[in-house]
Design goal:
By secondary structure, this protein is mainly β. The chain has one domain: Sandwich (Immunoglobulin-like). The chain contains one helix and ten strands, in the order H-E-E-E-E-E-E-E-E-E-E. The strands form two sheets. Strands 1, 2, 3, 4, 7 and 8 form a six-stranded antiparallel β-sheet that branches. Bound molecules: zinc ion (ZN). The site of zinc ion (ZN) has 8 residues, from loops.
């Protein structure tokens, strides 16, 4: 292929990719849901023990150690709002206890850039059923229009 047509093909590909990127939801590397937190993106992931893991990533989705962020999580099952205590680890935060039974329900993740910063709230419809299309858990589904 001539250089010119390669460049053209690359340019076309780039514009297609960037127009998709506007709408496409990016999934978290662990299989969880990415949250547009500051200063790094955070991933909300529920592990096999139903514990919440919150990990941080740079723009290229490489894991980064948490800086001064503070994360708090609360579950909102039918029985009432339950705060989930979070513990800081070397890679992020993990909950001390498992999420209560009875999903689907709402989980609210609050991320502060530092303890005195204004919190950013993320509301997640916590549902562990597998999505038939993307095969991820519904709470982390990356399909459009869900
Ligand atoms: Zn899906």
């Amino acid at each position: 292929m001539k250089t010119k047509s390669v460049l053209l093909a690359a340019a076309v590909l780039c514009s297609v990719v960037s127009s998709i990127a506007v709408e496409k939801i990016v999934g978290g590397p662990k299989g969880g849901r990415l949250l547009d937190a500051e200063p790094q993106q955070a991933e909300f992931f529920v592990n096999a023990d139903r514990k919440v893991e919150v990990s941080f990533y740079d723009a290229a989705l490489k894991p980064v150690a948490p800086a001064a962020q503070v994360v708090s999580v609360s579950a909102e099952p039918k029985g009432g709002r339950t705060p989930i205590e979070m513990e800081k680890t070397t890679t992020g935060f993990v909950s001390k206890s498992a999420l209560p039974a009875g999903e689907p329900y709402r989980v609210v993740v609050q991320v502060r850039e530092k303890p005195e910063a204004k919190p950013k709230n993320f509301r997640i419809d916590f549902n562990l059923e597998q999505c038939g299309e993307c095969k991820r858990a519904e709470y982390a589904c990356i399909c459009e229009g869900h």
